Amino acid sequence: MRKVAVAGLAAALGVTLAGCGGSDGGSDSGKSTVTMWMYPVIDDQAKSKAFWDKVEKDFEAKNAGIDVKIEQQPWDGRQQKVTAALASKKGFDLVLLGPDQIPQYVKQDTVAPLDDAIAADKASFRPNALTALSVDGKLYGVPIYQTITAPIWNKKLLTDAGVTEVPKTWDEVLAAAPKLAAKKTPILLYPGAPETSLNLSFYPILWANGGSVFSADGKKAAFNGPEGVKSLQFLLDLQKAGGLPANAATLANVIEGSPLAQGKVAMYHAAAPIGATQLGAGVGEENVVVGGPIEGAKKVAFGIPGGVVLAKASKVADAAKKFAAYLGSAEVATQLATESGYFTARTDASPTSASPLAKEFEKSLEFAFPGDTHPAARQVMTALAPELQSALQGKKTAQQALDDAAKLVDDQLAATG
Amino acid sequence: MRHRLRDPITGLLFVLPMLVLFVIFRFVPSLGAAGLSVTDYQLGGSWSFVGVTNYARLFDDPIFMGALRVTIVYVAIYVPLTLLVSLGTALLLNSVIFMKGIFRSALFLPYVTSFVFAGVIWRWMYEFDGFINGLLAKIDLGPVGFLDDTALVLPALATVSVWKGFGYSMLILLAGLKSIPSSYLEAARVDGANAWQRFRSIVLPLLRPALFFVIVIETIGAFQAFDVIYVMTGGGPSRASYNLIYALYDQGFGNFNVAYAATIGIVLFVLVFIVSMIQRRLLDRSNT
After folding, report:
1. Do A80 and B254 touch (CB under 8 A)?
2. What is the pLDDT of residue B6?
3. Is A31 strand, coil or helix?
4. Which partner for A185 in A180, A211, A355, B138 could form a disulfide, CB atoms 3.0-4.6 Å apart?
5. Interchain contact, B148 vs A16, CB within 8 Å
């Protein structure tokens, strides 16, 4: 009996421990396996699967020795999962990243340059897309698409409140706010929830007012300068004029089901094209107006190239570079832009069937700004977002909130070098 | 045969698979965290020994001190609340005669739903135009910003956690109640003890081992609350729900300060250990 028990337990233990093992990927029977983590760039799940399956097959047909695995990941928790994967040197060979994420990984020496992957084709990419994905002159991401944001308006609410022209400057937004507030309609959906990227909430206002997140040398915070204070004070003034929803401090930037899509708020200032479609579904397409970037001291539209980045620990770097180059090609870029509603990062390719709304977004491409790229860009958001919430909840003045956040950021930058 | 199965080596073999997993996934990482906390380890792999620098930094860090305060307040709200609800429902279930199984399953149901799912549902319920504010509006109250008000956010989150988690404690307490011989209660009833006296003098003392277990696991769970905060508030508003686990997560995965995150983890471990020891002293005297 005891022998039976021991044998059974030993087997159970073996199975348990076998589950703890991992696989390193790489070569299998002479084939190089390239694993890529892709995200829902194409919003529709079925379309997304069909598109990436086709990309995989087309590439494999042309490159017999390479097996590609495209793993779909959710946007949620991207930073954490990518960081963990790079640190453990497992998970992917290629991954889709934005320009503000790349410098931190370059600093950690966990990603590898990709200049040689697109050397022959470099002139065909938008120069600002290449610059955004480069660190210290080296290209770390092959641009496969370009996003752009623009303000989306519910024209009906403006008309009902007697605002005949769509505001073009932040001053005009502030001036129009009381008229809409009289109809109990806040003018701006400001998404103050800490999990919302500041690139899509506070920073576009800061940049339009001529401010920046970091000092020129990148060693200190700069968002608490006069431009930053003016930007936050603008939000507080707008709030006072009834221009923000009561729960602006905790709102997320999800358009579907939001007060904006319910016809209760007039505008969101940093929407992606999909946001305009969702707003149309909520309030009627005929009521949606896509504006140009709202002007302060200048016009700025947050827009980033999506870059395919190579993990330094990849054991199939050459095959991965080939695949990255294929993803950046005019052929794939055109199809991806058509399916995703984004734009291409190339000058020789554009989506084949852009909707009228998408064409309005395209006009903002010339004002595209990829954000302050800095190794601590994401960390600064963690420190700043709660302080912005405090100001919006009346607990701190604009200057206090920004100074407190700047102190945290400066300490952090000093501690991490 | 019976003698052989009671053999200590056989016993050890039975617990060995779990022991191995515990050592690999709990004990070794904990030692690793303790080691990390005295270094300045970077994700790239470089590190040097820095002694207690990370621990000293904690006490000058307003975010850590804020997170510590939030953690303690959350535990202070959550533990009594969950104890009250699970004990109340266990007592009710114990006295129910019909459809016991259905009631028990229904009350246990939230426990087996995902925390993320529960968080999303409760977020809708708490919203300005959500279910609860809809009810309040019917009596001309509100809207109340349950997740927007710094004073209300922790009780609101604790309520969700209690709803989600009380089923488990309820079952433990129910098992405890079932093990109390009915003859004790009958004898007390014959002697003229009322319901409160029977509960106070018979049920509560005999339920002490189960209560001790529930209080300890619920306290540890409350110190480690994360999912519900992550899904519902992201630590906000204004860090009013930013607890130690959230700070650890932000430092480790947001700021890449892995060593500093490990330091927070060790402090949390010490805190939980001390509180558990105090609880053991206070509650478990009669069982030791």
Report:
1. yes
2. 66
3. strand
4. A180
5. no
The residue-averaged pLDDT of B257-282 equals 92
Contacts of B218 (CB under 8 A, 6+ apart): B78, B79, B82, B83, B165, B169
For residue B36, count CB atoms less than 10 angstroms from its CB and return exposed for 0-12, middle for 13-18, buried for 19 or more. buried
Nearest CA of chain B to the CA of A103: how many Å?
13
Domain ranges for chain B = 63-287
Q: Which CATH superfamily is domain B63-287 in?
A: MetI-like (1.10.3720.10)
Q: Which of A249, A230, A308 is nearest to A37 (CA)?
A: A308
Q: What is the pLDDT of residue A148?
A: 92
Give the residue from chain A lying closest to B40, CA to CA: A416
Shared domain check, A386 and A261:
yes
User: Kindly report the CA angle at A220 between A215 and A226, in degrees rounded to 5?
Assistant: 55
CATH, residue A289: 3.40.190.10
Tell me, yes or no, if A249 comes closer than 8 A to chain B by beta carbon.
Answer: yes
Over residues B196-206, the pLDDT tens digits come to 999 999 999 99
Hey, is the C-beta of B282 within 8 angstroms of any chain A C-beta?
no
Reported as a single tens digit per residue, the pLDDT across B54-73 is 999 998 888 999 999 999 99
pTM of the model: 0.79
